[in-house]
Amino acid sequence: MRVKVHITLKDGVLDPQGRAISRSLHSMDFRSVQEVRQGKYIELELDETSIIQARKHVTEMCKQLLANLVIENYSIEIDGE
Amino acid sequence: MRVKVHITLKDGVLDPQGRAISRSLHSMDFRSVQEVRQGKYIELELDETSIIQARKHVTEMCKQLLANLVIENYSIEIDGE
What we know:
The structure is a homodimer.
Chain A: E1 2-9, H1 16-27, E2 33-46, H2 51-66, E3 72-78
Antiparallel strand pairs in A: 1-2, 1-3
C-alpha cells in the first residue's frame, strides 16, 4: 500500500530555505513570485491490507519520527482512500 | 495563485535519506515499512492571473533551479486547474 506524507512548516515559522529559493527566483527574473515555502514529501510503501491500520501506523510514524510537531504539520494521503 | 511542486528522485537513484528513515522506523518496530523515498515539496504563491502562464513559469523554475533533472523528476499542481 502506497502512502504519501507531506511535512510542512507551521504558519509563522521562519523558512530560510523557502526565502533562499524566493530570492534566487527573483534574481533570475521570475518577478511574479510572492512567497515560497519548502516542505518534505515522503512516500512509504507499506505491507498492510487495512487502510485504517495503515493510517493509524503512519500517524504514529509522523508523531514519533517524521515530523517535529512543535514547528511542523503533517498530512497523510493513502491511495484508494 | 497557489502552486504546489513535488520534486522526487528518479527511479533507480539511491535515496540515503529514505533508507535512513526506513531503518529508523524498523528499529522503532514499524515492521510493515517496505520502502521509503524522500522528496521535496514546494509551495509557491504567484502573482499571476493566467493558469497557463503560471504553469509555463513554474516549469521554467523547475528546470532552471528547483529540480536537478539528471536525478530528479518534478510535478506541478495549480489550484483551480
